[in-house]
């Protein structure tokens, strides 16, 4: 896992730069994502970016709609299947079912010639190379980059911004958050963690919370800063660590500011993390989410090791999840 985290910035940059030739999407009206686990967090990040740039609605479909049910009508739609292995049975069935129901199937996978690729009209490679640790890291970041390459083809005006972001993230190699030691100490004391974001930062929060659970056996929950101030705020009355992932988008600052102030006022231990903390600036929102993952994955790794866990091989998990 340690080695794969260090490879993530270059994987991201290469994924963004790949050429894309789109199938006919002249009548495209909506995009649906299908994914699980870390791939679903990447899909959530991409959904916000796709909606902002294309103005098409983008939302998630549960794989069980296809793997257990009979599907839904998908005329004039694209279905984006994100799967590092390209082999999970429910995602293969989803790709098959989506095509049968009229969708153009687009896939992001890290496994050439996978079963998902065989069912897709277009596959973009994550191209992360072998990922041996059970927790996905570089392939998640690569999936975000591949989605940005797809978006660059759908909305050509986005392409220069995507490429500039890729260059900025490539420069993150070897860099760390300045709060790293304080964050590690706080995580080692924590029993409960909230990871908070907004827009693409919410998908990054989902992924970091998942990593804290699967690597460190820590109870971690992801929340949007627009929702966390309702019922979930009450948990701050117990010892609670709050990590706020800030993509530095101007329009999400008031929401994050309010969440930070409320949690601090209630006595929560609160950290706000930004890509610019490590020198990455002027990123697209999806790239900022990827940067935050690159910068926080080492925290999950170090916390796991300090707690005596093997982050490469969590006791109850396997690399390919056989869900139906």
Number of helical stretches of at least 4 residues: 11
Distance between the termini: 27 Å
Quick one: biggest sheet?
A: 5 strands, parallel
Secondary-structure element pattern, one letter each: HEHEHEHEHEHHHEHEEHEH
Helix content: 40-55%
Mean pLDDT: 94
Mind telling me which CATH architecture of the largest domain this is? Answer: 3-Layer(aba) Sandwich
Assigned CATH superfamily of the largest domain: Glucose-6-phosphate isomerase like protein, domain 1
Instruction: Let me know the number of strands.
Output: 9
Share of residues in strands? 5-15%
**Number of individual domains:** 2
Strand order of the largest sheet: 2-1-3-4-5
Unreliable segments (pLDDT under 50, ≥5 consecutive)? none
Class from secondary-structure proportions: alpha/beta
Shape summary: globular
Q: Would you state the CATH class of the largest domain?
A: Alpha Beta
| CATH fold field value of the largest domain | Rossmann fold
Radius of gyration, in Å, reads 19 Å
Description:
By secondary structure, the chain is α/β, with parallel strands linked by helices. It folds into two domains: 2-170, Glucose-6-phosphate isomerase like protein, domain 1 (Rossmann fold, 3-Layer(aba) Sandwich), CATH 3.40.50; 180-306, Rossmann fold, CATH 3.40.50.10490. It is 45% helix and 15% strand. The protein has eleven helices and nine strands. The strands form two sheets. A five-stranded parallel β-sheet has the order 2-1-3-4-5. It has a four-stranded parallel β-sheet with strand order 7-6-8-9, with helices on both faces. Helix 5 (115-119) links the parallel strand 4 (104-109) and strand 5 (122-125). The model has no long low-confidence stretch (mean pLDDT 94).
């Amino acid at each position: 896992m340690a080695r794969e985290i260090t490879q993530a910035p270059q994987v991201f940059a290469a994924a963004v730069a790949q050429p894309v030739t789109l199938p006919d999407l002249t009548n495209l009206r909506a995009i649906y994502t299908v994914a699980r686990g870390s791939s679903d967090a990447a899909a959530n990040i991409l959904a916000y970016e796709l909606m902002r740039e294309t103005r098409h609605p983008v939302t998630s479909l549960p794989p069980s709609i296809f793997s257990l049910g009979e599907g839904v009508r998908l005329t004039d739609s694209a279905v984006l299947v994100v799967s590092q292995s390209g082999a999970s049975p429910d995602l293969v069935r989803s790709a098959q079912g989506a095509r049968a129901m009229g969708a153009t199937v687009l896939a992001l996978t890290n496994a050439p010639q996978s079963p998902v690729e065989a069912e897709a009209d277009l596959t973009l490679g994550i191209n992360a190379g072998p990922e041996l640790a059970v927790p996905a890291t570089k392939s998640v970041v690569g999936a975000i980059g591949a989605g940005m390459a797809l978006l660059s083809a759908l909305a050509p005006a986005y392409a220069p911004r995507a490429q500039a972001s890729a260059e900025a993230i490539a420069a993150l190699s070897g860099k760390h958050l300045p709060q790293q030691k304080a964050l590690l100490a706080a995580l080692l004391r924590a029993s409960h963690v909230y990871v908070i974001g907004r827009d693409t930062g919410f998908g990054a929060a989902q992924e970091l919370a998942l990593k804290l659970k699967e690597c460190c056996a820590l109870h971690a929950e992801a929340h949007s800063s627009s929702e966390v101030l309702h019922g979930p705020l009450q948990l701050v009355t117990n010892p609670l660590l709050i990590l706020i992932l800030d993509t530095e988008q101007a329009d999400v600052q008031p929401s994050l500011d309010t969440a930070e102030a409320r949690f601090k006022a209630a006595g929560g231990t609160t950290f706000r993390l930004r890509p610019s903390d490590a020198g990455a600036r002027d990123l697209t929102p999806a790239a900022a989410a990827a940067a935050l993952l690159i910068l926080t994955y080492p925290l999950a790794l170090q916390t796991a090791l300090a707690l005596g866990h093997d982050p490469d091989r969590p006791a109850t998990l396997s690399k390919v999840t056989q869900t139906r």
